[in-house]
């Protein structure tokens, strides 16, 4: 087990190193000279003074070998120092911190709702596979998967904010502002959670201990809650954590539509404005979080279920 | 040989009955999905001949018009025929999704097969890469590439392929390992069959169905992602316009003409739904493989965050 965990840790370190190199190279790869980019953002529209360019290049250490620049950048990045945003001149780590908090709240609410709704739906479908309820749930989940957020969101806004006036259409102030974005975001994970719950429950319900529980005279809810769900929950939990990692930085469209000041919106604005420090810090932290969550999930799963580390050929 | 032959017809009959049962059970999704998707494809293929108007032709006196006999689905903010724009827009959406899907599938299949055949350190490295890449939101990868290379079809396709190959690689690796362990492969090798014969007679037919199922499932996901990037203004650029870009353009006119938002979104939804139904129909029709390690993470198809 320790070996398994150590191997995953090694993979994690290699992955983080790779990602850090890639993000470090963004300003160099994008063709432009970062010094000129910075100066241009300071003195918009004016011709650049060559001596100022060279002075800033020296100040920023950009005349040093690339490897030293990388180590310097990495050292500061590890302390959370990503420099100042080109556009707003605020420290990037402050922007990142508040955006991460917002995205965390949104993701937690959306996935929590999806999870709570998926368990009964998936169980209902699994109780009598192939029957009417199962068919309905299957069709429902397939439809949910196919709904583009940028289609659902405007329609929700049209109905609930503009026609009914129940909920705000965009912004981030009171809990009401959470409802529509969370609803939009929850739809697809709800579908996948339901499908996985169904598949897991179909398997679990065939197990001898379920028959035994029924034979002992346990009621249907008791059987389901005490025996079936507890064992069927594991795959859903794994999927939950993967989605959590994915949505923390990946809910760009929803955050942009509902003007939610989260990670997705931050990185999107940075890409549009060529705000390189934010792009670097944003992508680095989003990918690092995703990779971290995956690794932790993997190790936890192996801890709970020894079959994974013993039989999984990929270990 | 002669002794076993009378048993064969009965075996075939049994298989036929089994097949019919599938068709009556969950297989219906496959048939409905196939019909809808075929209709979409035929419409898009024939668009240059059957579209009622030039999608760029403006009629400023007839802006934001509702349904009429002249414009079946009304007109947009510049008086352009919505039906024609939907048809031409769909050609961009579906073809970009198809190209990225094909690239992802080819790369993923190759990597998966090589990983399974070579094994060892290479296998370990490739599969760990898959594990980690699967967790990275593809929109973020797309944003990174767009930040570096700017918008464009090349960037769009590269961005969606960069992480898109992972499910195919994971599935193909599993399938190759599974098929290689089968008795009939050993039998064929013992009989001296050539490698290419084994690959095309045994490996490809057995891997094809699950691969196709995943392919169709991913198609819907690609379609939505491409539309999402266009909706953000980072995908298909004007004067070209796909369904996502149409949704973006329609935002300011949403209240006056909800159809401008509803219809392009509905087009993406219907197309994505049809391929999802095909994929899941094909997926559920395949005999269930052993659980256990396949439960470790959800099936590769259940991952994907576009939001």
From TrEMBL, chain A:
Subcellular localization(s) per the UniProt record: Cell membrane
SUPFAM superfamilies: MetI-like (SSF161098)
Pfam families reported in the protein's UniProt record: BPD_transp_1 (PF00528), BPD_transp_1_N (PF19300)
GO cellular component, one term: plasma membrane
Membrane topology of the entry: Multi-pass membrane protein
Regions crossing the membrane: 104-127, 139-164, 233-258, 278-304
Single GO biological process annotation from the record: transmembrane transport
Protein name: ABC transporter permease
Organism: Streptomyces antnestii
Automatic annotation (TrEMBL), chain B:
Topology term for the membrane: Multi-pass membrane protein
Keyword Secreted: no
CC annotations in GO: plasma membrane
A Pfam family assignment: BPD_transp_1
A biological-process GO annotation: transmembrane transport
Localization annotation: Cell membrane
Region described as Disordered: 281-307
Keywords on record: Cell membrane, Membrane, Transmembrane, Transmembrane helix, Transport
InterPro entries cross-referenced by the UniProt entry: BP-dependent_transpt_permease, MetI-like, MetI-like_sf, OppC_N
TM stretches of this protein: 28-51, 92-113, 219-237, 257-279
Matching CDD domains: TM_PBP2
Family annotation (Gene3D superfamilies): MetI-like (1.10.3720.10)
Polar residues bias: start-end ranges: 292-307
Highest taxon, organism lineage: Bacteria
Domain ABC transmembrane type-1, first and last residues per copy: 90-279
Family from the record: Belongs to the binding-protein-dependent transport system permease family.
Protein name per Swiss-Prot or TrEMBL: ABC transporter permease
Species of provenance: Streptomyces antnestii
Biological classification of the source: Bacteria, Bacillati, Actinomycetota, Actinomycetes, Kitasatosporales
């Amino acid at each position: 087990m320790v070996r398994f965990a150590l191997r995953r840790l090694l993979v994690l370190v290699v992955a983080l190193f790779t990602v850090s190199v890639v993000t470090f190279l963004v300003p160099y790869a994008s063709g432009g000279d970062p010094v000129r980019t910075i100066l241009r953002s300071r003195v918009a529209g004016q011709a650049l003074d060559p001596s100022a360019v060279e002075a800033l290049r020296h100040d920023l250490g950009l005349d040093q070998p690339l490897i030293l620049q990388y180590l310097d950048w990495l050292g500061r990045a590890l302390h959370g120092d990503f420099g100042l945003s080109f556009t707003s001149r605020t420290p990037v780590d402050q922007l990142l911190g508040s955006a991460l908090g917002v995205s965390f709240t949104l993701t937690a609410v959306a996935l929590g709702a999806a999870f709570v709704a998926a368990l009964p739906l998936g169980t209902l479908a699994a109780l009598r596979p192939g029957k009417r309820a199962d068919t309905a749930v299957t069709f429902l989940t397939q439809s949910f998967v196919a709904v583009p957020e940028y289609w659902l969101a405007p329609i929700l806004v049209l109905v609930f904010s503009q026609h009914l006036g129940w909920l705000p259409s965009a912004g981030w102030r009171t809990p009401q502002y959470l409802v529509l974005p969370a609803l939009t975001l929850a739809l697809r994970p709800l579908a996948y959670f339901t499908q996985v719950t169904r598949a897991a429950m179909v398997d679990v319900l065939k197990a001898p201990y379920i028959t035994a529980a029924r034979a002992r005279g346990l009621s249907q809810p008791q059987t389901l809650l005490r025996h079936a769900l507890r064992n069927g929950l594991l795959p859903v939990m794994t999927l939950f954590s993967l989605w959590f990692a994915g949505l923390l930085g990946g809910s760009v469209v929803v955050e942009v539509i509902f003007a939610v000041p989260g990670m997705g919106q931050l990185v999107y604005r940075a890409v549009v404005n060529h705000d390189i420090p934010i792009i670097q810090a944003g992508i680095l932290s989003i990918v690092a979080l995703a990779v971290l969550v995956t690794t932790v999930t993997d190790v936890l799963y192996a801890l709970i279920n020894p079959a994974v580390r013993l039989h999984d050929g990929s270990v | 040989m002669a002794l076993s032959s009378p048993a064969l017809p009965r075996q075939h009959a049994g298989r036929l009955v089994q097949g019919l049962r599938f068709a009556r059970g969950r297989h219906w999704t496959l048939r409905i999905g196939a019909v809808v998707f075929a209709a979409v494809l035929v419409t898009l293929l024939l668009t240059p001949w059957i579209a009622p108007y030039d999608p760029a032709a403006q009629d400023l006196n007839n802006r934001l018009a509702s349904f009429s006999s002249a414009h079946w689905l009304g007109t947009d903010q510049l008086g352009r025929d919505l039906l024609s724009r939907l048809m031409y827009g769909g050609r961009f959406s579906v073809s970009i999704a198809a190209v990225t899907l094909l690239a992802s599938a080819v790369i993923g299949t190759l990597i998966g097969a090589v990983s399974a055949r070579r094994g060892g350190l290479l296998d370990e490295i490739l599969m760990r890469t898959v594990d980690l890449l699967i967790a990275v939101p593809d929109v973020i990868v797309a944003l990174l590439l767009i930040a570096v290379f700017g918008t464009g079809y090349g960037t769009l396709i590269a961005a969606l392929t960069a992480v898109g190959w992972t499910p195919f690689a994971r599935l193909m690796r599993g399938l190759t390992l599974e098929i290689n362990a089968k008795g009939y492969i050993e039998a064929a090798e013992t009989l001296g069959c050539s490698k290419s014969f084994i690959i095309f007679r045994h490996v490809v037919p057995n891997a094809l169905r699950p691969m196709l199922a995943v392919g169709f499932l991913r198609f819907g996901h690609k379609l939505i992602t491409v539309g999402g990037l266009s909706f953000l203004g980072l995908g298909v650029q004007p004067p070209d316009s796909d369904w996502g870009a149409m949704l973006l353009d329609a935002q300011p006119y949403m209240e006056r003409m909800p159809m401008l938002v509803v219809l392009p979104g509905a087009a993406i939804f219907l197309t994505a739904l049809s391929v999802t139904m095909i994929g899941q129909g094909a997926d559920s029709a395949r005999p269930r493989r052993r659980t256990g390690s396949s439960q470790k993470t959800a099936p590769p198809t259940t991952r994907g965050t576009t939001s």
